[in-house]
Amino acid sequence: MTVLQLTDVTGGYTRKPVIKELSFTIGEGELVGLIGLNGAGKSTTIKHIIGTLLPQQGEIRLNGVTLSEDLDKYRSSFSYIPETPVLYDELTLREHLELTAMAYGIDEQTLEVRSQSLLKEFRMEKRLNWFPSHFSKGMRQKVMIMCAFLVNPQLYIIDEPFVGLDPLGIQSLLEQMDEKKKDGASILMSTHILSTAEKHCDRIILLHEGRVRAQGTMNDLRRAFQMPNATLDDLYIAMTKEQDHE
Amino acid sequence: MNNLQEVWSKRFNHYMTEVQKYMRFVFTGHLALVLVFVIGAVGYQYSEWLKEVAGTFPAEWIVAMAIGFILALSRPVTLLREPDQVYLLPLESKMSSYFISALKWTFWSQTGLPFIIYIVAIPLLKAVTELSSGQIWLGLAVIVVLKYLNVHSEFNYRYANRGASLAIDRITRGVLSILTVQSALTDGYSYVIIFIILLFVYNRTLAKRVKLQPIPYEHFVKVEQNRMMGFYRFANYFTDVPHLHGSIRRRGWLNFIYSIVQYNQKNTQSYLVYRTFIRTDDHFYLWVRLTAISGLIALFVNIPIVTWIVAAALGFATTIQLKYALLSSGDFRMDRLYPVDGSQRKNAVRKVLRLFMVIQAIVVMLCSIGQPLFFVTGILVIAVSELTFQMTKDPSIEY
């Protein structure tokens, strides 16, 4: 079943589009990597999916609805981990979790059960009453991750998840992602850590200058670039060189 | 040498432009208007009180303590910045010319306050003591000398001790300054000379220790940052200071208020807005300040029409400023993505403001008890606040 479907999406911050006629889908239980150079349009694509930017053309369907058709259903269907953690300076860690649970209509008992296991997994149990000003960059990132996994949505949208996390944090995140995938959730992840993407992603979308340059499994990509046995790093560099020749 | 003088004057100009930029807003803001009212009212009460003040009133001691206390607070204005620790390091031995300019400015910019206090106290001194005009003016000269010594001693003490245990220094200077002013006001000029010599020796001893030390850049930079931060916070009450991050305090004693908000998806924004309002210093102190001013005016100005106008004006100011602060949408926040109704935020802000404006109304009403029709003040505050919220535009942008 298709969870997320982008059809000919064109859009950007101004009239001049950053992403052009973007089309791809993500199915149930799929982990898809969104890969591209700086400025290729990864973050812009994500902003269109989460609905902070509206497409100039094309449409985005999540769980069968567009944002304008059913705002509540659309928004309840995903959770988002931004590249830079966005926290409320005035809320403690406990309150971040509580606020998120409240917003997504999770009852108090479920909140308790889910947050206990997340806090343990990310080793943050002792910081429940702390304000974000006392958190390191990695801890802030962990708060975002815990809030996202607390919601247990159909789709996770994760922007550059590994920057700032310690190795144990990365491990925990990957485990959580794996677990959710097994339960049928889908994940769209943008990253520059290509070896991790290659290892964990079911499919990869290579973005280049706002368009999908290639997408599919690693084997599909190798075929598209005519580079058998290539790693994702090789393919990425090949794409960079293509840009230089243009 | 010239080079460092230039550095100082460049910084000084930059600093003055910055201060002027924000002072404009301070003097055109609503608080300036209120201040005029307050000064007028207090001045009137003061002159009335002078007519009946007892001859035994300890004016000399009170004036000496007020001025001595202010004199002890002589924080140096060095305008040093963080990169100086690296870039000015090779010029360490030449920095004294820079500090001379800095201390000159510190002296001139801070002498005004004890001066004003003394001048305000002159009618009191004339009423209570038998000092001649000449003796009173001599007191002013003593204050100038004391200020000069205080500025230099505090700088040298901070330098020599790298900012540690400043309280000892301030208490020492404070006590000596109080005794000097008190002696000057009671005709004890030989004591004045002794105390001034003591302060002078104190300063020389510190100055000698300074010569053996490298410049404590870290301390002075921190002092500067705190001072500028304080200024920006102050300016932020009147206008929006862009590079200011409102500080957060837990204010645990107000936690009970949060229990108003039930755990329910419909209350998501209320959950957030109550905490944002109570814990953000900018928002919370704005309300505290305007409520206090409104209350004080109601308490001391016994003219109902003035109380009403001030209460209504401050009710309007509180509501509109807090509405904008809590509703305007600057940076991206996670609640933009929440699957909750878009109007929730506005309703939550309305609820929080309604609660705190009712408290303001009660405070002002209690303060005006005794005036005829005192309840009108409270009704006015609530009515103006509701109307303001209803009629002004919604600053949030729909996402």
CATH domain topology of the largest domain in chain A: Rossmann fold
Q: Per the principal axes of the C-alpha atoms, what is the gross shape of chain A?
A: globular
Gyration radius of chain B, to the nearest Å?
Answer: 26 Å
Quaternary structure state of the chains depicted: heterodimer
Protein name (chain A): ABC transporter ATP-binding protein
GO molecular function (chain A): ATP binding
Domain ABC transporter (chain A): 4-234
Keywords (chain A): ATP-binding, Nucleotide-binding, Transport
Task: Provide a brief overview of the structure.
The complex is a heterodimer of chains A (about 250) and B (about 400). Chain A is α/β, with parallel strands linked by helices.
Question: Can you characterise this structure?
Answer:
The complex is a heterodimer of chains A (246) and B (399). Chain A has 246 residues and is of the alpha/beta class. Chain A folds into 2 domains: 2-77 and 155-245, P-loop containing nucleotide triphosphate hydrolases (Rossmann fold), CATH 3.40.50; 86-152, no CATH class. Chain A is built from 9 helices and 9 strands. Chain A has helices at 42-50, 71-76, 93-103, 108-121, 137-151, 167-182, 194-200, 218-225, 232-245; strands at 2-11, 19-27, 31-36, 57-62, 78-81, 155-159, 186-190, 203-208, 211-216. In chain A, helix 3 packs parallel to helix 5. Chain B is mainly α and 399 residues long. Chain B has 2 domains: 2-236, no CATH class; 252-329 and 336-391. Chain B is 73% helix and 0% strand. Chain B contains 14 helices and no strands. In chain B, helix 12 runs parallel beside helix 14 (375-391). The model of chain B has no long low-confidence stretch (mean pLDDT 89). Chains A and B meet through helix 2 and helix 3 of A and helix 10 of B.
